[in-house]
Amino acid sequence: MTLTADTAGTHWNELMQAHEIAVTPPTVRMDDPVSKAVQLMVVNRLPGLVVVDESDRPVAVLPGTQVLRLTIPESYRDDPALVRTVDEIHADLFWHGPGRLTVGDCLPTPVAKPVTVAPDATLLEIATVMANKRSPLIAVVDRGGKLVGAVTLERLLTSLAVAGPND
After folding, report:
1. CB of 62 within 8 A of CB of 103?
2. Where is each CBS domain found (predicted)?
3. How far apart are CA 24 and CA 114, in angstroms?
4. Please, are residues 38 and 49 in contact by the beta-carbon 8 Å criterion?
5. Does the predicted TM-score (pTM) go above 0.85?
6. Cα(84)–Cα(40) distance, rounded to whole angstroms?
7. Is the pLDDT score of 167 beyond 60?
8. CA-based nearest residue to 153, from 125, 132, 131, 120
9. DSSP H helices in 123-162
């Protein structure tokens, strides 16, 4: 926690930083199956995953919505009215289709630079990056670029809710 003086210099406020609200996320690699990614997101209640290289440096953030998008057959993505023609049993099984897809298959080409912040980033910095990049998951990396944690939208909002004035 960092202490900062207010404008009058008479009161001190505690600022939360990224490393204090970050979780230790499970990670995946580009060649991992999508099914592994989905299981990790579900079990850990995460909105996405950090994709790392062999040195545990983030190479991408994989939002769950991107995985979901790829599980929907392309014809249905192009024509949402077509979805209403699918019977209920088959509509509930659509996500079984991408059995052989890898995490790398779910990422756009070229792979976008991962959304990251430093461990000492403030809640405002994290919120700004998260909002600008439209990413529900932000990787926290050290100076060497290694993953030290991740901040989820849920953790950020919870921290903002409890970090009110005079707390």
Report:
1. yes
2. 16-80, 108-167
3. 17
4. no
5. no
6. 30
7. no
8. 131
9. 123-133, 153-162
